[in-house]
Fold these 4 entries.
Entry 1:
Amino acid sequence: MNEISLMPAEQYQRLQQRNAADVKELWDLLDIIKDPELPVLSIWDLGILRDIERDGDRITVTITPTYSGCPAMDNIRTDVEKALNEAGYQEVTVNMSLSPAWSSEWMSPEGRKNLREYGIAPPEDADLDEDGLTPEAHAQCPHCRSRDTRRISEFGSTACKALFQCNDCNEPFDYFKKI
Amino acid sequence: MSDAIKQATLEYVTRLGDDSVVLGHRISEWVSYGPFLEEDIAYGNVALDYIGRARMYYSYAAELADDGRTEDDFAYMRSDRDYRNMLLMEMPRGDFAYSQVRQLLADAYATVMLPELVKSKDQTIAAVAAKAIKETKYHLRRSRDWVLRLGDGTEESHQRTQKAVDQLWGYTHELFDMDETEQLLADNGIGVDVSKLRDAWHAMVSEILTTATLTVPDDSWAVRGGRTGYHTENLGHMLTEMQIVHRSHPGCQW
């Protein structure tokens, strides 16, 4: 199956920001930091990593939570500090930024692909209307690719996921919500 | 920022934090008691969103207060008379219908309030609101669906839901009250004039209740006090439970 990647504007801007950064090596370095609850997604893939600045010896990293109460943020902050310390940067500040609010549009194309392979349907794998995730969303089963699925609950194992079940292969699966 | 505005803003974000943490805690009381696993998880998720909001408001309050207090001090080291949450948020868990009706009333409030709060000239307040709006859409859809299902369900579920509506209605007037602090902030483009939101809220809630074959109560009684620190007895009990670990082990961190 051919995959045509349509990059959302938000994602394009993020990519531009990363490529134009004067600390591009730090963006690359932080690719090793994964979301503790989604180990196939780096904080770059998920769009949690917002900015990296260098001022002399001081590195300031800006991250943003996916949901208000995301419990992974404290872990991520520690992981970022540790990775930079180990790379020889001793003065590290990690800022939490709330605005603009995180959007699932920021997720990278690789992240979406990895998510699907991991067994979680990415945001674009469901039919969404203005009202969001209705019972008729028919999220695509990441296991057998069937669209004959039903929504079990809009609230899944973490704040960013909803629970579906496939009517063809019967497997339950998570769907990463679009917000 | 002038001192008066700064003080008012501190008071305001503390109120918003109190509303969020109290409701978040109440919702969390369903965890492991939900009618089935998915509902258990759903309420856990919603609780997390509210507690997350509370953290953001409280950390901002701590920043504004600038007197050494942290977000934890705001959540755990204040007594019921210091809390400024609206009474609706502290009402006990009740049965599932009661909790879902309260959730609907609160979600509808958030739905009309947050789009105004997002316009706040205070960037932190606006940012928290922008984040919360997205989550509120999910919350409202769920509480709405449940109230429809319970109201228009069996005779028993209908009765329980109607009873919850009747019992909670008197606490909703407070949601739209303004005092000097809120007026000052509304006039300065920082807070929201919630008195202007009641009609939109009432229309939204009435439509849902009517569709659920429930009767919208008249406005004959109203209870107030939360914003001035006069609470129902429920809050003290709730805070005792919520604060016990932190107060027993001062300064402890997870």
Entry 2:
Amino acid sequence: MEVVVKDWGVSLGYRRGALVVRKRGGGEQSVPLHQVDRVWILTGGVSISSRLVRALARHFVDVVFFDGRGEPAARLFPPEANGTVSHRRAQYEAYLTGRGFELAKLAVYGKVVNQAAALRRLGAWRRESYRLLADAASKVAGLAPRVLACGDPQCVLGLEGSAASIYWGAVSEAFGVPSRDPQGGDPFNLALNYGYGILRYAVWRQVVIHGLDPYAGYLHADRSGRPSLVLDLMEEFRPHVDLMVLKMRPGLDWLDGGVLKREARAALVERWLSLRLEPVIARQVAQAVAHLEGRSSYQPHRL
Amino acid sequence: MIWLAVYDIQDDGERAKAAAILQAWGFVRVQRSFFVGRLPRGRAQDLLHVLSRHVKTGHVALIPVPDDSLDKALELGAPPYAPLKPPRYVQTLVV
């Protein structure tokens, strides 16, 4: 069970092998700990007892805290969750042998192919803009093979940027949504940021579970605190989030003081969970490990 | 996997504790000393360990049954507390 805490004034405690949720103004709910898969905390004003944290860690249950913009602010997990050193060694070695760059290229290739597929799917949703979306899809799909021929990160990032501008141009024209701007304050961009934040957390979690170093990436430049590998590997899943957000039609009623309302955040998390993408992400990260170790070649995920 | 929990405990305090622990672990009471619940693989041993710390006299049994076997159960009368088939987990709980 995924426990999503969206209201403030909630306290989470532990009693006799169960997670006890108490709400301000009464109301208590108890959930057996073996049924809990994860605890999502999406707002401030929530307290969590240390006994519960200990019990959750013993059960390998993740506790994840998001801030108002959807940044995964913290994640609690037991110390032994990141023990596979051999994978980390392979990851660093792959930086020198070029297998790492190959992996990042394949992930971006996957993203561009998925963007084209997403545009075609959007064309089926909105028949009146079918022509526009289908044309953009062919243009984006035409860029995908060029990614694989790239010899350096600059070339890959350049092609990724051109694909993104065609993709977002067509999406905003067909659906009348604002153009993509990570700094934008409109509900559509805020919801996308939130969705990408959830995706980043999900990839991060799998990267750590598989024993990789989230900060040592191949395409995104190394910078202190930037989870480059996570950013590399999450690329191919972004179109899933785009479709999810477009389908939910974020409107002005989603906003509260410049950030998303708590209900909207919980709705995004719920929708994300209903997509059941996390097992797919786990499989892709396991494949990435196999690629870095030279055991097999990475197959990007198809939308 | 569905587990049946049955006990016969003379001590009132221990009996109440056993019932409280079983319910905290998601078991539902079917009869006074008969509970059913779902547990993931390997967790029944943990539950028995927790029970063993509080129940010093009497007998407790945890019996695994395949998921579909309760559908074939034969019953006489209505169960006094809850139906024989334990409820499914809720997938997402939003608070």
Entry 3:
Amino acid sequence: MTGKIDKFCLVGAVFALLSLVFPLSGVDIDTGKNVAFVSDLPGLASAMVACVVTGVFFTWYGVNTVLRGCIILLVVVFGAWQAIATLYGHGLAGYASYGFWMFILSLWALVWRGIDVIANYRTLDHGKQQTANVIVPLAFGIWLLFLWEVITAGFGVPQVLLPPPSMIGVRFVNSTDILWDDFRQTFLKAVLAGYIFGCGSALLVAIAVDRVPFLKRGLLPLGNMVSALPIIGVAPIMVMWFGFDWQSKAAVIVIMTFFPMLVNTVSGLNAAGRLERDLMATYASGYWSTLFRLRLPAALPFIFNALKINSTLALIGAIVAEFFGTPIVGMGFRISTEVGRMNVDMVWAEIALAALAGTAFYGAVALAERKVTSWHPSFRVRRH
Amino acid sequence: MTTDAATLPPAAAGPTLWGRMMKGQTGPVCVMLIGLFVIWYVGAVFMNMPGQLDRYARAKQDWNVSQLVSATLEQDRPVLPAPHQVAAEMYKTIFATKLTSKRSLVYHTWVTLSSTLLGFGIGTLLGVVLAVGIVHVQTLEKSLMPWVISSQTIPILAIAPMIIVVLGALGLKGLVPKAMISTYLCFFPVTIGMVKGLRSPDLIQLDLMRTYNASRWQTFLALRWPSAMPFLFASLKVAIAISLVGAIVGELPTGAQSGLGARLLAGSYYGQTVQIWAALLTAAFVAAMMVVVVSLFEKRVLERMGVRA
């Protein structure tokens, strides 16, 4: 880096400088005057100056260390905080103009460089490397949320179209009781029941199929084909058969999760090598003990693969099945009714809940996999 | 082989057709399918029986078993329609109605298929562009990749009604919102598959490109892109299947007027079970056909590229 010009920092500095000069806001319709000037906003002005200084300094002083990335990110955090404070504290929301957006662009250029520096950080210290690997996507995600907030507030985007994340967060915190009821109905009842039953029965069928080659040849092609079919379409039929409550959702999930598990487990049962099987044979080990001591453990990576796929399928299946008829509780029910009432913030709160639940569920399965199949090569620490 | 082998009966010369069929996949799959039909018929009889017995009781009608069985397979709104009823409904709505009529399944299939293909096209393009970026720009890889993965934890199918309603309020109706849902669903497997594929060339091949003093762009065109093709097609098969699911779910909210999803919803509102099953089987058939088409493309492309299957 030394001796070269850091383009991103330069762009950041230039835009921050321009943002000090250009008008911050458009014209208020009632008074015909500009809403805000830089001179009235010491906080924002100091953030802009900080961005100019940081950008200029790092444009020529280029030592690519983590310290540099952290300093840049800290300046960006300060700038972002000031930008939001200006939007909401000084009535800039909906009136933001050139100067303000140039400041945002400046922050964007700087944050890119900051993340870039940390992303390229290499160390043999495993803990530090892990921290860096977590900071990068986290910083990127927070930046995206900030952009979302600033763009929706700054341009005055109608809330029906896209509410700012702060509004969603407030709604989420204020309606935890409703959200909990929906979560219990959809996730704790339907998803878990369907998931456990679907995956469990598929596992048993897979062992039976593995025993009988004829079944294997007949069922596997069908199982592979079923994965391409829009199974979610059975939802209305299941609602008719099993009624409106969680049982019908669980039935849909059982059908959706069955085939991925079946196909994966059958191929997993063939994963154990010839050598290991011969070894078991020399121990005079029968079918069942070979199954439990060798073939099922060897199949675990495949089984967990299916469990991970199914964890996302199950949640989607439950929510979509709720569009076809529910009791008056559940995530899918809430989403479809609140959309009708144009309570978009509630819908987004439900979506956030669904995303959290889905991520947590997937994460739990992935964690279990790490615990159970820690011997698998894919979990080896990569040394750079 | 000696000459007297010719005098042996031909059956002994090799395995019978039956034996060959049962050795491979064709026989077992056929047996399974026949078994499925048998289960379906038996299930239809048993599931429709209570309703039929009710009807007999209300009409104070005498009945015997054979009457009962044939009646359960001929109900108007059965709990589980028999295969021949679904087939009849499909024939009626696919071949026997005008293509432009609202009753024609071909029309509804076309509505769903058009948004599926649009979403699939955009999603594939987006997925490939993202993958190229991720492979070539390290910052993108570190910052974007985790978000590409976590983007799929949002149950987009659950947001589908909202996207459709909101875009409808903006005056965007019909094809585009549905296609956007398909796009969101299908860019993911394409991105993941292409990242894998573009990274699949061995180090030794990449080094060879360097000895030729090839630019990154030339390396991409001559080495990375061709080696990613098998991965791309594997992803496309997954992507086209889920973009159909996206299109169908996109038709559920707001009581969409046309499309296979709308047929499912209308059928479930009015208890028209035969209509639901016809729409469902049509959707399944369309999905299977699309995967077959992608496979054919794959075969042609890989053959032209000289990849040995």
Entry 4:
Amino acid sequence: MIKHSDKKIENAAATATVAAGDYYLAEIKAGQTFRIVDLEGNQAADTLFYCADDPTERYSAMDTIREQGNLYLTAGTVLKTNANNSMLEIVADTCGRHDTVGGACATESNTVRYDLEKRCMHACRDSWMLAIQENEEYGLDKNDIAHNINFFMNVPVTKEGGLTFEDGISAPGKYVELKALVDVIVLISNCPQLNNPCNGYNPTPIEVVVWD
Amino acid sequence: MLNILNPTDSTSRYTTNIDGGSHWSVLVRRGVNLRLTDLEGGANVGMMFYNPVWLSERYNAPDTLKCQHTFKLTQGNCLYSDMGRIFCSIIEDSFGWHETMCGNAHAQHVSKKWGGRDYQSDRNAWQQNGYDSFLVELAKYGLDRTAMVANVNWFSEVSADDNGNLKLTRQSKAGDAVTLRFEMDTLVVLHTCPHPMNSEATYPKKPIRLEMFKGEPVTEQDECLNHCAENRRGFENNALYLLGA
Ligand SMILES: [Zn+2]
């Protein structure tokens, strides 16, 4: 569902540009609103959320999918934790649909999906691993690297049970905006994927904006 | 004779029945097959897979689905870990569509649909839920809820319409069975609690049969190996992992 936001950049509390292949890790307080902008289009923002008070409670793709009875995320979707509590709500979305089935790219899955010799190509899970190593204060480890959201990705499931990776329905400047319902840690890998035609083999930066 | 699988005897077989609303875990060695049979119809088996050597290596539903371009799991599919390896292959399946995206019912779902969980009155007929079942089994191996990623729900078909709306569209009939061939040593954690989208009038307490027996070696003609180029590369990753074994 397309829903625009009336928030103005000049009123933002913080902005950050995240280069392709980099990560973003920060805490967002309950009540704050958080926007991810696809600056150049067809980029994937592979995102994980944790409860700041206890990161063992985290975003759960399956709880979110099951509770809303729908595979795709858009304005109105409430993101659920692994304890089935509400965590964030998508309050604006100019893209219309985001994926949480397809997971993140990893060097290991790249060997299976593309070629055994692609094992050294940079991938989202590497970005997350570096993030948790460089930011010990969050207390995250590999066990916390779970099933994520792919903002701006389009992964339709067919009636017959097929799974396809379609060209993005995103475009330059499209954004998704989430309101935190509890204090959350957000961890984004701005996808460095060079094997997938979805992004035209051209990873690009994203922008993150936070409002109080 | 012991009812325990003897790996040197190809006719040996371990058989047990597991009541509905129960949970269990077992280490399944490479080369062993595990067959699940729905005894009465309408069963659901929630299942998770871990590498016993590094418990942080676990079943990865997204990698499993996207590398085989499928949303459903059935014969010919392999179940992948997050490390690009294959825990097991689905070598037989009479049901045709097992789902792996809806997770487990929590206590709140069960009590809302069917009333609370009351061991004092109901004893082992209590209305257990899949989420707590997994938590109990995981704790036995030092794992907590962070280890609980998307699981398989055997015998439950969940399909999506064009807009992504999900429905539990079909459950298995009595006698439906699925056979998994293990390609590496795997800790299997399972429950027989109702699928989270089950909406029957009474708590479905459906037993299953579980059998373990020695599998045939993987041949060059193997259906799972040849299902797609991705699976062949998955088997190559396993061969590297098992180098020298
Ligand atoms: Zn990626």
